[in-house]
Design brief:
By secondary structure, the protein is of the alpha/beta class. It folds into two domains: 2-104 and 297-310, Nucleotidyltransferase, domain 5; 119-294, ATPase, nucleotide binding domain (Nucleotidyltransferase, domain 5, 2-Layer Sandwich), CATH 3.30.420. It has helices at residues 36-53, 89-96, 106-117, 176-180, 182-194, 199-202, 213-221, 225-249, 265-278, 299-310; strands at 2-8, 12-19, 24-31, 57-64, 67-68, 73-76, 87-88, 100-105, 125-131, 135-141, 144-145, 253-257, 289-292. Strands 3-2-1-4-8 form a five-stranded mixed sheet. The protein has a five-stranded mixed sheet with strand order 11-10-9-12-13, with helices on both faces. It binds zinc ion (ZN). Zinc ion (ZN) binds next to loops.
Length: 313
């Protein structure tokens, strides 16, 4: 069986054909349109194209950023301006297309793909934490996404870890996202630069405000001590959240996904170090292995398609 997978983010929308073994047979991307009507048109075009080219397409999965309910309503999608709050994505797409439709949160889709076909394949208790511009994630229990009462579980980015801490994109202060996302890495680096403690980073830009996480990674790869120290501070923030999440979920494996995957061992090594140092029970208990995601940015499309197929059986 095959499904159409669609992954909608703030800047791009990806369309693909996903086989039930997780293989992505085709994929293309477009800029995220400004209105829901335009998006419906693009989805309709993808449906016509893919069902014309591939046999056995039996479902369509659509993953979107934001608070997406189990029955397909978009309640809060600040990064996707095209949605009106409370818009029924499921009803609209069901009216347009003659196919089984599944609507879900984009992080749930990505985490599901990683737990079935990526670096946590075969594991039953999987914590996926996506570190990118923000922080998303999901918990996978026995192959199912843990959804909560309304479908909104797994918003790990917005649990408060430092009351009165740095401002978060959600408007509150001290959320995990404000301390441990890719944006937070850039903020920490800029604070170092403002204290004249990051000469090599400053040399890479015209202005301190331009320093971001990529500069830190590139500089650290070249052995810059300041950049390595910034990553160490940042890794402790990441680990603090993973320690707390481990106390709640006791995962078998923790998968780091999102844009910061490209930092590889530069990030993974100090995160593992602080995770083991700070975990309750420390060395006296078994702890989850922390690994980087394998599927990269295709995980959203693969997961959306795979989730839609899983609903059929
Ligand atoms: Zn927040």
């Amino acid at each position: 069986m095959r499904a159409i997978g669609i992954d909608l983010g703030g800047t791009k929308i990806s369309f693909g054909v996903v086989q039930d073994d997780g293989t992505l047979l085709a994929e293309y991307r477009l800029p995220t349109p400004d209105t829901w009507d335009e998006m419906r048109t693009l989805i309709g075009q993808a449906y016509e194209k893919f069902t014309g080219e591939y046999e056995d397409i039996v479902a369509l999965g659509f993953g979107a950023a934001g608070l997406i309910s189990l029955d397909g309503y978009a309640f809060y999608s600040p990064n996707v301006c095209a949605f009106d709050e409370g818009a029924s994505l499921y009803d609209d797409l069901s009216a347009d297309l003659d196919i089984e439709i599944t609507i879900d949160n984009d992080n749930n889709c990505s985490a599901y793909a990683e737990s079935r076909f990526g670096s946590a394949a075969g594991k039953n208790n999987v914590l996926v934490v996506g570190l990118g511009t923000g922080i998303g994630g999901a918990y996978i229990l026995n192959g199912e996404v843990l959804r909560g009462a309304h479908g909104f579980a797994g918003e790990f980015g917005h649990f408060v870890v430092q009351r009165g801490g740095p401002k978060c994109a959600c408007g509150k202060n001290g959320c995990y996202e404000a301390l441990a996302s890719g944006s937070a890495l850039g903020r920490i680096a800029r604070e170092y630069a403002e204290q004249a403690r990051a000469a090599n980073l400053l040399a890479m830009v015209d202005d301190i405000s331009q320093i971001n996480g990529t500069h830190v990674r590139v500089s650290a790869e070249n052995g810059d001590e300041d950049a390595l120290e910034i990553i160490d501070v940042f890794a402790k923030n990441v680990a603090d959240g993973l320690v707390s999440l481990t106390n709640i979920f006791d995962p078998e494996v923790i998968v780091i996904s999102g844009g910061l995957v490209e930092m590889s061992d530069l990030l993974l090594d100090p995160v593992r170090k602080y995770f083991h140092l700070e975990s309750e029970g420390g060395s006296n208990r078994p702890l989850a292995n922390i690994v980087m995601a394998k599927l990269g940015e295709k995980s959203g499309v693969i997961g959306a398609g795979a989730l839609s197929l899983s609903r059929l059986v």
